[in-house]
Amino acid sequence: MPTSFVGNKREIPNNLPPLVFRDKVWELEQNADLNNLDWYLPQMEYLSPEELRRLRAKGLIWREETGDFPTEINWFWEVRMARRRGDIPHTRDIARSEIDEDGTLKCGYCEAKWSANHDGSPHPNRCKLCDRRMLVIIDKREVKNGSENI
Question: What angle do CA 65, 56, 18 make, to 5 degrees?
């Protein structure tokens, strides 16, 4: 039975090749004692045992590559999926964000970009990657449109 491996490039430390990262995660998941890691973040409480094991494997690789465990895991796949299911409550943090001239919204925290909606619907009010509420402080579309009218 094929197994899929999904994630986000931000989960991979130090430009480690994605396939090497995947293989290391799978190896640790199968063979390492991941229950006694000295690493805890509140989001871990809400994960299923399988998700927690994979997250711990990713954290161990992160520590091997950088010397420390990650301190931000909101964009890790397991956390995002638990949040999408409603298992993890939304963060209360706010990101000061901006919209560029082309209508692309950029999260002020994780710098994820959300394309302009072609149907005219509004951008998401919460970043789907880091889960922060996006407070748009600069909308360059308004500046562009305003300068054309002068």
Answer: 50
- Look at the chain and report how many structural domains it folds into: 2
pTM of this structure: 0.81
Six-digit token string for 141: 């579309």
Residue 59's nearest CA partner among 29, 83, 89 is 29
Boundary of a domain, candidates 56, 85, 114: 85
Q: What does the pLDDT look like over 48-65, one tens digit per residue?
A: 999 999 999 999 999 999
Q: Is residue 42 part of a domain?
A: yes
Burial 38-59 (b: 16+ CB within 10 A, else e): ebebebbebbeeebbbbbbbbb
- 37 and 56 in contact (C-beta within 8 Å)? yes
